[in-house]
Specification:
- A hairpin with an 8-residue loop joins strand 4 and strand 5.
- Helices cover 9% and strands 24% of the residues.
- It has helices at 11-18, 139-147; strands at 27-33, 40-46, 104-109, 119-122, 131-134, 154-161, 174-182.
- By secondary structure, it is mainly beta.
- A three-stranded antiparallel sheet has the order 3-7-6, covered by helices on one side. A two-stranded antiparallel ribbon has the order 1-2.
Length: 187
């Protein structure tokens, strides 16, 4: 039970008394007074104790008229639940030390001499298969091929033709830049 709370206690006095109880962590208390008849209504909102809580109880002070069977000498105490509490815990974890940066990876193909041809295989850890990419695939084909992996949702792909050495005009060396939109993070 709380320390004695006077009949005309302020909202702050009731709040402080309730928060002294071992089973109540924190409450907000507002006080509505009906000036016509003097009724006082305290609205108590439990801000940290989650779920449907037991109803508060009025206990008359020892030796008072109320303890002899009357709720108050010339009045009453009515405690009702206005809204049942519900427990909802949500956890949101972010890493806000730096701005969001999408994962970008590069793929390259080429040959040491002669005409290039064929495919290379690509996968991501956790994928259900590997995919074959033609050595000279354009960006659009490479994008569709990578997005066929089970753990890749959306990527952006650009392709650049490279020269393996000064004067190289073979057109057999390519670099693809793959930006991961889904999955995000370390792909």
């Amino acid at each position: 039970t709380t320390a004695n709370v006077t009949v005309n206690a302020s909202a702050l006095e009731l709040k402080l008394a309730l928060e002294q109880l071992p089973n109540i962590e924190a409450v907000d208390v507002t006080l509505e007074t009906n000036r016509a008849n003097g009724d006082m209504t305290y609205l108590v909102t439990f801000t940290h104790d989650l779920g449907d809580l037991p109803l508060l109880q009025y206990v008359a002070p020892q030796g008072s008229l109320a303890s002899a069977g009357n709720a108050l000498a010339n009045g009453f105490v009515n405690i009702t639940e206005i809204q049942e509490g519900h427990t909802e815990v949500q956890t949101i974890t972010t890493d806000a030390d730096v701005g969001f940066t999408r994962e970008v990876q590069s793929l390259g193909s080429g040959c040491a001499s002669g005409a290039a041809s064929g495919f290379f295989n690509v996968t991501l850890p956790g994928a259900d298969k590997w995919v074959r990419v033609p050595f000279d695939a354009n960006a659009s084909l490479t994008k569709r091929t990578l997005e066929s992996l089970s753990n890749v949702g959306h990527v952006e792909v650009t392709r650049q033709a490279l020269s393996a050495y000064s004067g190289d005009v073979s057109g057999a060396h390519f670099m693809w830049s793959v930006t991961f939109h889904d999955p995000v993070g370390d792909a």
